[in-house]
């Protein structure tokens, strides 16, 4: 005979409690922070180049700078950071970077196409429809390395050949790729990089292909416009995602960001720009001090490389060895002298652009992270003032990238992207202690 047992109410409540706890254990719950309000007190505030508030306070609420000044009342819910005479700056901006971008694995045994003169676009490195956002990884070490130096924003571009895809401006923080993006499709990224064992595999071939694609896109866009106004009797236009990627460039809504780390490449890029008429940005510029006027007349935007050649070491002279030098040694000495002069020009390039009135930002694309602070100090020793160096890290790139209303200075209403150092940032002994990205705090211990 079946019996019906009655479960006591207390036991039933306990069973329900265990069931609920088990469900929570299986599904992680992200708890909201206790507060998103911060007050940075007793800090020297460098609001922008030439703008300073001594021993003031910065108040952040919900990722936005709420107030900046002296004798401010501290919100009751604020986490107080006693900066004790430290220095706070707007977070630095990297104008051309691959921070957080996953590099695709190289195919070692790639087959040569059957028709090398007319390969598949992807094989030839022609993928302008690609989007760097699909390759972003917030956990990539490069993000943390740059952030530890005070960089909070970067324009990043995808890896690839002559037309890798579109770049985006990101925040160097966030837990997902979507959280990182500040401005999508900020640039149409291009290189003068040829394909391997197929067309176009030379610089001249790349330039020729670039002109061909650009003009085909202009024709396709014009035909689409005509078809949209009156479709009667007209063959419908074909969809071509490669040509369509050029449309924002043709309309001058998006600039072309070209890798131009060499003098010859920069000249070739400006030649393309003159022929086709797009808005151009030169990225990772390294040795273009002799073409400043050409860059200026082309109205090109510039991001100078933070990669510098090693300084020439001074060797102690031995008088006896000096007397024994032959003609070969004299030639070597002359070569070393020319090398030193070239490096000096390289280091002084930023100062030369500044004197010519050409606004510029900086690029970390080819620089070693550990060398960046020292290289900035070398540029300052080469003629750039500290205020000019700070402008190239903050206000200038914010203007060049069209985001000056959101970042670049320590002002009310701006995004809370900040870097706090224990001494003036360009001091050789300065250490970054805190960085804010979108109002999220990152702490750094001094070793």
Q: Can you walk me through this structure?
A:
With 447 residues, this protein is an alpha/beta fold. Helices cover 32% and strands 23% of the residues. The chain contains 14 helices and 15 strands. The protein has helices at 9-26, 141-147, 177-180, 203-229, 241-244, 247-250, 263-276, 292-297, 319-323, 327-347, 349-355, 372-381, 386-393, 395-400, and strands at 37-48, 51-61, 64-69, 79-90, 92-97, 151-156, 165-171, 181-190, 256-259, 280-285, 301-305, 360-363, 418-421, 432-437, 440-443. The strands form two sheets. The protein has an eight-stranded mixed beta sheet with strand order 5-6-7-8-9-10-11-12. Strands 3-2-1-4-13-14-15 form a seven-stranded mixed beta sheet. α4 (203-229) packs parallel to α7 (263-276). The longest helix is centred in the middle third of the chain and has 27 residues, at 203-229. It is globular and about 70 Å long. The model is unreliable at 1-5 and 23-27 (pLDDT under 50).
Nutshell version of this structure?
It is built from 14 helices and 15 strands.
């Amino acid at each position: 005979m079946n019996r019906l047992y009655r479960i006591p109410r207390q036991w039933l409540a306990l069973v329900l409690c265990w069931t609920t706890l088990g469900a929570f254990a299986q599904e992680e719950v992200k708890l909201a922070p206790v507060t998103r309000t911060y007050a940075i007190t007793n800090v020297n505030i460098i609001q922008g180049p030439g703008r300073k508030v001594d021993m003031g306070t910065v108040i952040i609420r919900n990722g936005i700078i709420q107030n900046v000044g002296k004798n401010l009342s501290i919100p009751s819910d604020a986490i107080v950071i006693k900066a004790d005479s430290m220095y706070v700056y707007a977070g630095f901006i990297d104008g051309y970077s691959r921070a957080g971008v996953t590099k695709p694995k190289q195919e070692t045994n790639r087959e040569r196409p059957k028709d090398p003169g007319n390969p598949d676009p992807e094989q030839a490195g022609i993928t302008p429809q690609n989007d760097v956002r699909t390759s972003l990884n917030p956990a990539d070490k490069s993000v943390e390395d740059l952030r530890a130096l005070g960089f909070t924003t970067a324009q990043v571009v995808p890896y690839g050949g002559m037309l890798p895809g579109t770049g985006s401006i990101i925040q160097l923080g966030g837990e997902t790729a979507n959280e990182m993006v500040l401005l999508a499709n900020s640039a149409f990224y291009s290189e003068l990089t040829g394909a391997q064992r197929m067309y176009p595999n030379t610089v001249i071939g790349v330039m020729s292909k670039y002109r061909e694609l650009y003009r085909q896109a202009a024709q396709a866009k014009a035909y689409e416009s005509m078809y949209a106004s009156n479709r009667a009797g007209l063959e419908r236009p074909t969809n071509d995602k490669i040509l369509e990627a050029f449309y924002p460039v043709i309309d001058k809504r998006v600039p072309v960001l070209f890798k131009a780390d060499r003098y010859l490449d920069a000249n070739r890029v400006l030649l393309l720009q003159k022929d086709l008429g797009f808005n151009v940005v030169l990225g990772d510029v390294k040795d273009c001090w002799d073409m400043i006027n050409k860059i200026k007349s082309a109205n090109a935007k510039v991001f100078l490389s933070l990669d510098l050649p090693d300084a020439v070491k001074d060797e102690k002279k031995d008088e006896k060895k000096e007397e024994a030098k032959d003609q070969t040694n004299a030639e070597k000495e002359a070569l070393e002298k020319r090398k030193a002069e070239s490096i000096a020009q390289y280091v002084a390039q930023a100062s030369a652009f500044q004197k010519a009135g050409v606004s510029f930002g900086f690029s970390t694309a080819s620089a070693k992270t550990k060398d960046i602070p020292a290289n900035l100090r070398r540029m300052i020793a080469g003629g750039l003032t500290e205020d000019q160096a700070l402008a190239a890290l903050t206000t200038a790139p914010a203007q060049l990238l069209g985001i000056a209303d959101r970042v670049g200075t320590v002002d009310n209403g701006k995004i809370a992207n900040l870097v706090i150092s224990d001494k003036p940032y360009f001091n050789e002994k300065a250490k970054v202690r805190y960085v804010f990205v979108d109002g999220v705090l990152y702490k750094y211990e001094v070793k």
